[in-house]
Amino acid sequence: MRVIFNEELKAVADDLDHMAQLVRTAITLAGDSLIDGDIDAAQRVIDGDIEIDALESSIIDQCVRLLAKQNPVATDLRVVVASMRLASTFERMGDLARHIAEASRRTYPECPVPAGAKPLFGKMRDFLNMTADRLVSMLMDRDAAVAESIITDDDTLDKLHHQTFEFALSDDWSGTNQQLIDVVLIGRFMERLGDHAVSAARRVVYIVSGFDPSKEPQRDEGTDID
Amino acid sequence: MRVIFNEELKAVADDLDHMAQLVRTAITLAGDSLIDGDIDAAQRVIDGDIEIDALESSIIDQCVRLLAKQNPVATDLRVVVASMRLASTFERMGDLARHIAEASRRTYPECPVPAGAKPLFGKMRDFLNMTADRLVSMLMDRDAAVAESIITDDDTLDKLHHQTFEFALSDDWSGTNQQLIDVVLIGRFMERLGDHAVSAARRVVYIVSGFDPSKEPQRDEGTDID
């Protein structure tokens, strides 16, 4: 029984690793579509989201079967429950990457955000690419230290996001209303990608250490501009 | 054993009912703060969010204990897993209501959206109040028909949300950039409240009927303005 459980849990862990890699690819390509005007990248994110959605369903089904057949307790149970929640977080990250790609495709060959805002969005893209790499290695290595770095560094993204609002409200802004809408929406999607990465990192800390950092005060800050 | 399980599951169901009521209150008060400039309502939403967060934690802990001790299978297991996911959805709805209240508080005594956009936001508020009532009765009565109505009617909210963009891009727009930022962000928060209500309704349909409507193509549409 124990052997079967470990095998089945291993299959879930492998699927989560795969999902993290797909999410990393989606984030990287969404950034390429936004900053480099790469329309093929945009289309790949949009088309690829269905695979991420399917993996979420599959992981949750596997976990439910595991719970029914194996009745895991203690650490094993915690791992199964956290795995389901991780899968849902990754699914949502795929959606957000898709939204960025859709906005980039809509304005192609123009960039959805005006030239003056592009350096800021470029920095956010770089930050999210680093976070996406960390997500994958945190999962592959079950590395709580990498997870902690995701949690700690998210402030950087929030500050960049805040600066997009400052730019939009400054005298330097000369964009259209459509561009302002895109600055706000795309900025929000990128900020939420960071929030979800933090939430995923907390689940991995929980799996690895048994300590639940989500019991600390909720994040999702930096949302409002005051 | 069976008796204990049902008792414990009943406690989870009661907490979910209570959570739905708190979310309804948060949505209603957030709408009052936005449309009626009710600063006390805004503060109540902001202060009350901590209770919603605590209920999510408590429900998930109860469900994990249930899984460990009672090893539910079949329908019971499905109910436990769906309950955990419902609690997370409600928690997120509390956050979104709080974001709306925070924006309203920031601009008090002014409304964050300009006068011309207010009728549209008023309609979105009315829609969300109706949805919040439905959420509560869907949970209390385990009523799949009410849940289905939430799923079906969400298009109405998406259309209203779309109209806020049309207004912002029309010649009738004369607001500031700050107001446009708020129109986009608050519109997004309201649209997401609708999406999460749909997701909650799908989980209730799943609990009641065993059919999982989330296996249909993902929603979260109407996000992008094309």
Tell me what the structure shows.
The structure is a homodimer of 226-residue chains. By secondary structure, chain A is mostly helical. The first copy, chain A, has one domain: Up-down Bundle (Methane Monooxygenase Hydroxylase, Chain G, domain 1), CATH 1.20.58.220. The first copy, chain A, has 6 helices and no strands. The longest helix of chain A is centred in the N-terminal third of the chain and has 34 residues, at 2-35. Chain A is elongated and about 65 Å long. The relative contact order of chain A is 0.14. Residues 217-226 of chain A have low confidence and may be disordered. The interface between A and B is large, with 39 and 39 residues. Chains A, B: It is found in: Cytoplasm. Chains A, B: Belongs to the PhoU family. Chains A, B: Keywords: Cytoplasm, Phosphate transport, Transport.
The overall average pLDDT of chain A, rounded, is 92
Question: Which CATH architecture of chain A?
Answer: Up-down Bundle
Question: What do we call the CATH topology of chain A?
Answer: Methane Monooxygenase Hydroxylase, Chain G, domain 1
Largest interface: A-B, 39 and 39 residues
CATH class of chain A: Mainly Alpha
CATH superfamily of chain A: Phosphate transport system protein phou homolog 2, domain 2
Residues in helices of chain A, as a percent range = over 70%
Radius of gyration of chain A: 19 Å
User: Which structural class fits the helix and strand makeup of chain A?
Assistant: mainly alpha
The number of helical elements of chain A comes to 6
Per DSSP, what share of the residues of chain A sits in E-state strands of 2 or more residues? under 5%
Shape label of chain A: elongated
Are there runs of chain A of 5+ residues with pLDDT below 50, and where? 217-226
Kindly give the count of domains of chain A.
1
In total, how many beta strands of chain A?
Answer: 0
